[in-house]
Amino acid sequence: MDNTHRTKPKMQVQPKGGSAPEGMGSVRRSAVFLGLVAIAYVLYLVFSGQWVAFWESLAGVNRSWVIVALLCYVAYYLLGVVAYAVAVVGDESSPLGIADLMSVEATGVFFSNLTPNGTGGAPAQILRLTRAGLSVGSAGALQYTRFIIYEASEGVFAALMLIPRLGYFIDTYGNVFLVGALLFGAKVVEVTSLLLVCLLPRQVSALGTWGLRLLRRWGLIKDERYRRWSHTVNEQIYEFSNGFKAGARNWRLMLLTLVVTLVQLGFQYVLPWVVLKAFGCQADLLTCLACGSMLELLTSAIPLPGGTFGAEGGFAFLFGSMFGAALPAGYVVWRFVEYVLPVLAAVPLMGLRTRSGLSLNSRIRRWRNRSRR
To answer: Is the full-model pTM beyond 0.90?
Structure first.
């Protein structure tokens, strides 16, 4: 899942040099793991007797709707680029161009999807921003702001979908819907915690230090680890807070970024509905958007690359009755469009560079001046 974008940095950022992010080892391990999962899925289809039905459903898929699904993900990616552009367009000194921002968004797609729980996305994006000419502090400010807005947008979108479809979820899924409600509640807690870190860094730092002292007193961590963790916690909290405050000075642009991100998520969550159309299945668009939002919350909660097992189980549970016998083939098409192809397409896009040296702000002003002539 994309995520961009939506996980906290856990790799050490190297602002200079040409070495690959430390997460490349994790990417390789994840690729092997996902390959084994794909083989296991094929074996499951064979031994469960669904192989013939799978191929029959796949052979009858409407390719036009598959193309629509691909275009939806392209729109999702481009709106991610727009969200970054909105954040930097007001900065006349920013060296970032459109090609740089396309590379940053593609980097987030690649590393978020191929590292456990998406932890490699944000650090890799910060590294890419520094290579485009931003300082580590400015890159962190931009990425942290984007991260928080993306997380908040997921919660807002889920709420907007659950309000009109709450009765459907309760009637259709019964008590199991409590899992979805729990995931939504966890998202609210996560976003609230992030805002507290940004707005009250001193208090949060004191609370974190107190917790580490308590763990040391109980003998759960040793003195050396306590000192290392205490330094890391305090440094990360203040870096995160300063970065967000620097990026949030223009609240109008932040609000616009939120709106763009909500539309972006809509193009991702609509993919199951489009895939249903590809198999000739009828389903309510709003219901599919609500289920797609819930599926993303479930997938992002699984600490495995691409939310493996959460994606499969969640898709089968939420959309099984809509797809019927076409479920195995529907899952493969959805996963291919939403996960496999974006990872492959991100590889060449990560190499994009803006060569002109002109800021996005300068380009827009130049375009406006030309249009007025």
So the answer is: no
